[in-house]
Amino acid sequence: MANRTPVLYLSHGAPPLADDATWTRQLAQWSADLAKPRAILVVSAHWEEAPLTLGATTTVPLVYDFWGFPERYYQVKYAAPGAPELAAQVRKLLHSTETPVHDAPDRGLDHGAYVPLVEMFPDADVPVLQISMPSLDPRALYDLGRKLAPLRDEGVLIIGSGFFTHNLRAMQEVNGSNGTPPGWSAEFDHWGEEVLRDRDLDALLDFQHKAPAAAMAHPRIEHFAPLFVSLGASSAEGEGRTVIDGFWHGLAKRSLEFS
């Protein structure tokens, strides 16, 4: 058990993350401190589909699921190998009459997956599989993570990719990670730090009622939801530690590693 691959929850940022020297350095250092995984399984805030669906298992074009950015962001490539063996393992772990598993063979990695991976694994030499979030229910996603946990014994790095606070309408124009965040973002981030440190799973699963400023921090919860997959995939006694913190244009970029 001591050699299990860790589980990550990361705040993935938008395409301009590539221009943030501090954040890209933090992501690169994080991956350098990890053993190279056999494969990567990503659950991104940007793919909700039920039943649970497996993305492409071959190298296909990326999904540029954002609008209004300079053209150079649409020219980014990340030709990671597909992961058909991992897809077969996921299907075996999850498939039942109650939980069918579908396939989307042409569905490439969206920016919630490839934006951080470009910084963390720039050689694009680790097979990557993305799966959809079939629900936004925290308990259902936690249970999904528990079913995926055995993959960690096979060298698979499970990544939940979201944003620790995410309210684009209230997003502030501040100086990168050094600006003063709005109160709602700072309050939610501080609460999250405390309950994660205490492994208060009940509070986390009921964060919409327990967390301060929850409705402001997450008007819609899809960017917090991948955290529950990561929590489920981590062992019950697994320690979680913050690897990256701070704020980006007022949004908390807290990112965590679970043993």
Automatic annotation (TrEMBL):
The lineage of its organism: Bacteria, Bacillati, Actinomycetota, Actinomycetes, Pseudonocardiales. It comes from Amycolatopsis albidoflavus. It comes from the Bacteria. Residues 24-237 form the Extradiol ring-cleavage dioxygenase class III enzyme subunit B domain. Its cofactor is Zn(2+). The keyword Signal does not apply. One of its GO terms (molecular function) is dioxygenase activity. CDD domains: 45_DOPA_Dioxygenase. PANTHER family: 4,5-DOPA DIOXYGENASE EXTRADIOL-LIKE PROTEIN. This is Dioxygenase. Belongs to the DODA-type extradiol aromatic ring-opening dioxygenase family. InterPro entries: Extradiol_dOase_DODA, Xdiol_dOase_suB. Keywords: Dioxygenase, Metal-binding, Oxidoreductase, Zinc.
